[in-house]
Fold this protein.
Amino acid sequence: MKLGAANYLIKPADIDDISEKIQEAFEKRQTIREQTHDRKAYFKKLKVRLGVGLLAAFMLPYAAFFGYFQFQFSKTLKDTGRLNLEALSNSQKNTIDLFLQERVANIFTLFHSADFSLNPSQNKMQTYLHDLRQVDDAFIDVGFLNTQGIQTGYAGSFPYLKDKNYSDESWFKILLNQKRHYYISNIYLGFREKPHFTIAVRQIIDGNPYIMRSTLDPDKFYMFLRSISRGKEVESALINKEGLFQIVDPDRGELLGKSDYIPPENIESGVTEINKNGDSILIGYAWLKETPWALVVRQPLKIAHAGMYESRRMMSIILVIIFLGIAAGIWVANSRLITHAQGAAEKSDELRHQLFHASKLASVGELATGVAHEINNPLAIIVATSGVIRDMLNPEFNLNPSPEEIVKEIDTIDSAAFRARTITKQLLAFGRKNEPKLIPCNVNHILDDIMSGLKEREFKVADIEIIREYDPGLPEIMLDHDQIRQVFFNLINNAGDAICGPGKITITTIRSDEDIHITIKDTGKGMSPRQLGEIFNPFFTTKEVGKGTGLGLSVSLNIVESLGGTIDVQSLEGAGSSFTVSFPIRRL
């Protein structure tokens, strides 16, 4: 098969294209000159207008802001104090909840000691108490209760509590019946006639409930509460739902005494204001999660707002200084700023033109290098093969000059020439922007047309499974049938070339909102991040030498973008690649 010389000649249409580009370049240069002249006039006007306008535009809002700040400060002062107190009460509440959780965990750990027994000895109970006090000296004693509520093991300051029956105690009944595996009681007197509270933990052993309990000293708990309130200028206390003090400063009240304020149970946290002896007092509260107690935090209003008044005075002084400084700075710096901006704009234009010119030169050089490399390969094959034919016709080399052998060599020459022609055609397709011929197309039918027949048999022989996952409800969209067929053909070929040995190619079509997405996914060798950044560059290929020109994806991208679509690529080395082509759905 012969190749026509017309395929390698410069056509008149190409000369027209070059002339048009020269004319466009001249028009762009003239436009740049006009833009430069207009820019100078613009900056002259800007110097005059900005000097007056900027001062007025800045001063008026700034003055309005200053007045609004003074007015709004008084209004928001009380809200700020409330928010601070509420945040403080919530923070302390969380700390107390965490303290109680840790004490529960300390007691629960006793069940999991290495030598735990359902009949603990006195020495073992003493060891339990020692371990608890090592963690926190608030623990007073420790006891172990059997399923009947009898305290069969005890260690502490009240030895007569051993073998006591707690089955009628409220905390014991609640613990057995509630879902939670632990219970924290209110402050009560109990058998010892002294204020204390109990933390009891339930453990199911062989289907029976056993309880480990310990009492804690409220005075030690108060010291903990006082430590987390230190430096906050507040008074903190804990009360139960009935308003009885569970933890309180001895100077303010006594344990189990009545509080003068009881927070609402249906609100988790908040702040209120009360008057007492002519003084306004802010009270913040927050209900604990571990036990039905409320943390109540008190702070006199004059203390809560003292820092804010000082802040307002300092901020007023600072705002006045800033006001005067900025006004003077605007007046002095305006002229210099405009001058520098004009110079920077002119230099930016010059650099942009230089960069654009250098970029064009670099692109031309890179493109020329790729063309030379790709064209030289088939030319080298043609030269070498023609030399072989000459040697075959030379009797001195004693080669077989039969027509069959010569035809084989000519076929090699034809193959190389066709490869050169293919590169030339793809390069022209890459460089030219041909207007697409839009017709209604169904992408499912186009994909089936590509895969039917020879292509599907070729993949079957190569042990590559084709999986079709089509959306049957895809609407027809306006595409150039031949061009989009070329795109899909290139992507499917690339997917097959990326698979070494058995593999899968999954072709998926789906509609998403106003777009159609076509995904071609393979289980091939994948690509590195560096390769992903270069796959759409002309003459870049991941295939072996002689198996690809490196123009297929460049041409495909041009076609897809000319049709208003996009190509998205995802790939991982060793895990395959996925190419997704998306097109907007246009009305026919």
Observations:
- The domain at 223-307 is CATH 3.30.450.20 (Beta-Lactamase).
